Amino acid sequence: MRHGDIDDIAFRSAEVAAVNQALNAGSRPEDLLLTPPRMILD
Q1: Do residues 42 and 2 make contact, with C-beta atoms less than 8 angstroms apart?
Q2: How crowded is the C-beta side of 37, counted as CA atoms within 13 Å?
Q3: Residues 1-42 pLDDT 10s
Q4: Which of 10, 11, 27, 40 could form a disulfide with 22 if both were Cys (CB 3.0 to 4.6 A apart)?
């Protein structure tokens, strides 16, 4: 994997999109709850 590959994958995720949407709607980051990150690399 290249250096930016993980970022490329993460920024396409539904969870990142939901966080971005919530922040743009005025939510405060400390009020958001996220699942622990998981990634399996083969």
Answers
A1: no
A2: 9
A3: 676 777 777 778 888 889 999 999 999 999 999 888 777 776
A4: 27
